[in-house]
Design a protein that fits this description.
The protein has helices at about 35-50, 130, 135-150, 150-175, 185-220, 235-245, 250-255, 275-280, 280-305, 320-330, 340-345; strands at about 5-10, 15-20, 25-30, 70-75, 85-90, 95-100, 105, 120, 225-230, 265-270, 275, 310, 335-340, 355-360, 360-365. The chain has about 375 residues and is α/β, with parallel strands linked by helices.
Amino acid sequence: MIIRSLSTESFRNLKISTVDLLPGINILQGDNAQGKTNFLEAVYFCALGRPLRAEQTRELIPISDTGVTGAHARAVFGDMSPFTIDAAITPQKGKYVKSIAIDRIPIKNTRELFGRVPIISFAPEDLRLIKSGPAERRKFLDIEICQLSPVYYQELRAYYRALRQRNHLLKLTQKDKKQADSLAIWDTQLIEHGLRIKKTRAQFITQLNQQAADIHAHITQNKETLTLEYKPNITDPFQFATALDRHQKRDILLGSTSTGIHRDDVIFHVRGLSARSFGSQGQTRTAVLSVKLAEIRLITERLGTSPILLLDDVFSELDAARQHFLLEQVKDVQTLLTCTGVDDVLKKVPQECAILSVINGNIVV
C-alpha cells in the first residue's frame, strides 16, 4: 500500500496544496511547529478516519480568524488500482461532523476504511505504550486489530454501547433500586461481545509476540528477550457472569462497571521482568521499536500488502544502531519520516528518497 498524493484545505496549519509522494522514503524536514506532524495527521485521518495525535477530531480544524470553520484532506492511495479518500470535518448545529468518501462516494461508517489502507505510526509518544496505564495498551490493541478485522470493530462498538447503557442504568439504580432488575439485559450483551473480543485479542497478541520476540532478539544480538503477555480481565462466560453479579452492589455505588474487557492489559516482559516496572529507557525504546516492526510484518502477512509507515521525529529517541536497523527493516515499505535536521538522516537512508521542506504550513519540494 502506498499514498500517491495528499491534498489539504484548512487542515490545522497546512496551507492549500497538493503534494506527490514517492513509494519509498519521504522525508519532511523543518523546524518545530511548522506542520510536519500535521501532514502525517492528515494522512492518518484519511486512512483510518480518526486523529493520529489529537484527542478529538475538532482539533484538526485550524485556529484562525479568517472565517475557516472546517478541515478537509484528500489522499490518493494504491499502486495498481488507485482510489481517493476524502476526509472532512464541518460544524453543524453546534456539533462537529466527520464525513468520509471513497472515490467521491460517502461511506456510512468508519469501519468501511479498516483494512483498505493499513497504516502504522511511530512517534516518541509511543513510548507510553509500556510506561503508561492499561488504557494506552488497550487503545493500541484495538486500533491494530481493527485494521485486520472489521468484524472486531463491530464487536467493540456493540460492547461499549452496552457498557454505556449499563453504566447509565447503574446511576439510575442509585436513586431507584427497581432499575437493577434490568441490569441482566446488559450483562448478557457484555458477556456475549466481551468474550469474542477477548478471543481475538488473545490471538493477536500470540501472533504479535512471535514476531516481536524475533525482532527484539535481532536488535539486542540475543542478549535480551521480549515477551508480550495478554492479561484479560475475564476468562469465560461463567466467570464473567459471576463477577458482574458479585460486584453489582459496588458497581451501583460507583455508577461504573468494574468487570470486563475494558479492564484488560498487556504486559511487556524484558528478560522475564516487567518492562513497565523495571525496564530502562533504552529497553523501553527497543521493546516499542520491536513491536512496531512486528506490526508491519503481521499486517503484511495477514493482508498481503505492506502498510504505510509514519515516523514522527522518532530518530531523536533512537541511537545510531537502532536508527540503522529501523531503516533497513522498512526499506520496502513506503515511509513518511519527519525530522528537524535532514543531513544526518540522509546519511542513514539506504535508498533514494524525496525531501519535502515544511515552512509555516507550506510544503516545499
